[in-house]
Design a protein that fits this description.
The protein is built from 5 helices and 4 strands. Helix content is 34%, strand content 21%. It has a 4-stranded antiparallel beta sheet, sandwiched between helices.
Length: 121
């Protein structure tokens, strides 16, 4: 096993699901009514607004994740814990491993929806 294969990261994220998401339900929207009516463009616009609030210092990442993320990690401020290669969807993995610790990603598309990712370790 090479060092790269054994590398792990820790990250938090905010997920906004949309009509194209593979699972159209979340802790916030158990019936998926809102998610099914949300376009990818609307989800991305909402996420960009949240990203701008974080970058400008208006809001903390964990607070926004707890309030707006469609992932169950919201209850942990978006924290996904530590993970290695091949444990997340490929676009999410690639984006997370490319970030420096403390860096916030641009929008990342996966089968789950659109995300912003904060690498924490």
């Amino acid at each position: 096993m090479s060092a790269a294969e054994g590398e792990t990261v820790r990250a938090s994220h905010i997920l906004i699901k949309h009509e194209g998401s593979r699972r159209k339900a979340s802790w916030k929207d158990p019936d998926g009514r809102i998610i099914s009516a949300t376009t990818r463009a609307d989800a991305a616009a909402r996420l960009l607004d949240l990203r701008n609030q974080i970058l400008s210092g208006q809001a903390a990442f964990a607070d926004l994740a707890a309030r707006y993320s469609d992932c169950s990690s919201a209850k942990r401020g978006g924290d996904l814990g530590t993970f290695g290669r091949r444990q997340m969807q490929k676009p999410f993995e690639d984006a997370t491993f490319a970030l420096k610790v403390g860096e916030l990603s641009d929008i990342v598309d996966t089968d789950s929806g659109v995300h912003i990712i904060l690498r924490t370790v």
